[in-house]
Amino acid sequence: xxxxxxxxxxxxxxxxxxxxxxxxxxxxxxxxxxxxxxxxxxxxxxxxxxxxxxxxxxxxxxxxxxxxxxxxxxxxxxxxxxxxxxxxxxxxxxxxxxxxxxx
Length: 103
Hints:
Blueprint: H1 2-41, H2 43-73, H3 75-102
């Protein structure tokens, strides 16, 4: 019974991670498009946004790898990590959007 629950949790975890990754890619594309628009406005801003985007992408990859590894080891901890990951990503994305609006 416990094993069944574990398997279900694992499946949900994988799905959550995949969804998060897809959403991230979509947001990245959105950011890229915005940056293309910003390029016309200001090259400096574009450089900053590219730097932020790269940092976010690296962090995302690291978090995803860590999440997958942790998930295989401890499902519960894995879920917590995913939640934290999503929170971090949302905060970073909001930060980028705020910067874009302000600039």
